[in-house]
Amino acid sequence: MVEQGLTEEEACARIYLMDIGGLVTKSRYNNLPDRHIKFMKDMKDTKNLLEVVKTVEPDGIIGASTVAGSFTEEIISEMARINQRPIIFALSNPTSKAECTAEDAYRITNGSVLFASGSPFENFEIDG
């Protein structure tokens, strides 16, 4: 984003981070690692990813949590509702720890998803 002309502050304002404590917010300042400070948001604390997706309406979500299934059907459906081509990156590995499977992402979004993963998934067919 910076290479496209935004300031670092503007770019950071467009990125919402969630960690083990939930959304990175200003009220968590004293408990955040220094690298998270520039991403703090002036929003209410929440650990609910669906709530964040509904509030923020992101173009994409990137998972690196190693929490299998954390991108639920409801979250993927909401991403498809708010985006013509939702971006979903389930980057955790091994596959057993991926936030969602490729098949789920494609099935739930009726194939409209731009999906990437950190692990290989089995081949599958949709409407084949």
From TrEMBL:
SUPFAM superfamilies: NAD(P)-binding Rossmann-fold domains. Coiled coil: none annotated. GO terms for molecular function: malate dehydrogenase (decarboxylating) (NADP+) activity; NAD binding. InterPro entries: Malic_NAD-bd, NAD(P)-bd_dom_sf. Gene3D superfamilies: NAD(P)-binding Rossmann-like Domain (3.40.50.720). It comes from Oesophagostomum dentatum. GO terms for cellular component: mitochondrion. This is Malic enzyme, NAD binding domain protein. Transmembrane segments: none annotated. GO terms for biological process: malate metabolic process. Residues 1-126 form the Malic enzyme NAD-binding domain.
